[in-house]
């Protein structure tokens, strides 16, 4: 079991750093809106080159976050404070993401929705990649995975207690 844990941790760390690098590259190659009078860039969406590999790497990382956190919860007795901390951090990340979206929309079209950039029914544009792939969404995914693995472990413990009582 120890060898499997080391392998899982190695895979988690590798996919974690790969996902961070891909999220950073998406941010780096997503054009920044320079304001009115500067025109809209016609250079294309270079950040999109990193969106497609980022999605499976990030989901792969979340699977290993789930596996490792579930085994962590399984070996701990007192884990009642963890969901409170996770929910608090989740709330802060959602609030930060909301402010990030509002800030970008204010720049793109003075706070109106949808901004001028949304002319086609496609969510990725040269200015909006970072709405979906940023440190807030990265952290939200990890926190939701930790919360789900916590809930699964609580249900497992309750089921185990019921079967032991019978």
UniProtKB/TrEMBL annotation:
The keyword Transmembrane helix applies. The chain crosses the membrane at residues 7-26, 46-66, 78-98, 132-155. Keywords: Membrane, Transmembrane, Transmembrane helix. This is Uncharacterized protein.
